[in-house]
Design a protein that fits this description.
Blueprint lengths: L1 H16 L23 H11 L13 H11 L11 H16 L4
Length: about 110
């Protein structure tokens, strides 16, 4: 028992000195590529990654009606009211995700 009590401060010191892993960076924390033109393959990939639409590579095709609806669901109440997939919708999604990427995480 005495050894256990004597080794406790050492164990606490060792635990305190251990490096803490950095929190994983979420896709939403990543800025959009500068050359990501609305509707481009890079833009779709960024939106997909930011919202986690594709998951394990088995998600809907970028830009398809199913993919657009998945984006709408992920955005929830913030989802644009314009027709999913339209240029206005893409612009709204882009603006929303860029704003989210600039916001500090809590």
């Amino acid at each position: 028992m005495r050894r256990l009590v004597a080794s406790l401060p050492f164990a606490l010191l060792l635990a305190a000195c251990s490096p803490t892993p950095a929190p994983p960076q979420t896709a939403a924390d990543q800025a959009a590529p500068a050359d990501a033109t609305l509707g481009s393959a890079q833009w779709y990939a960024w939106v997909d990654q930011s919202l986690g639409i594709d998951g394990n590579g088995h998600g809907p095709d970028h830009g398809s009606a199913e993919w657009n609806q998945a984006v709408q669901r992920k955005l929830g109440q913030e989802a644009p009211q314009s027709k999913p997939g339209s240029p206005e919708w893409q612009q709204s999604v882009d603006a929303l995700l860029r704003t989210r990427a600039r916001m500090p995480s809590s």
